[in-house]
Amino acid sequence: MNLLNKVAVVTGAGSGIGRAISEKLASQGAFVYVTDITEASGQETVNIIKRNNGKAKYLPLDVRNPEQVEATFQKVANDTGKLDILINNAGIPGQPSSIEQIPNAEWTNLLDIHVNGSFYCLKCAVPYMKKNGSGRIINMSSLASETSLRGYGHYAAAKYALLGLTETAAKDLAPYGITVNALKPGVIRSALTSGILSMAEEELAKATPLGKIGSPSDVAAAAAFLCSDEASFITGATLIIDGGFRLVNEMDNAMDRFLSISNS
Ligand SMILES: NC(=O)c1ccc[n+]([C@@H]2O[C@H](COP(=O)([O-])OP(=O)(O)OC[C@H]3O[C@@H](n4cnc5c(N)ncnc54)[C@H](O)[C@@H]3O)[C@@H](O)[C@H]2O)c1
Question: Angle at the Cα of 180 (from 47 to 136), degrees rounded to 5?
Answer without folding.
Answer: 45
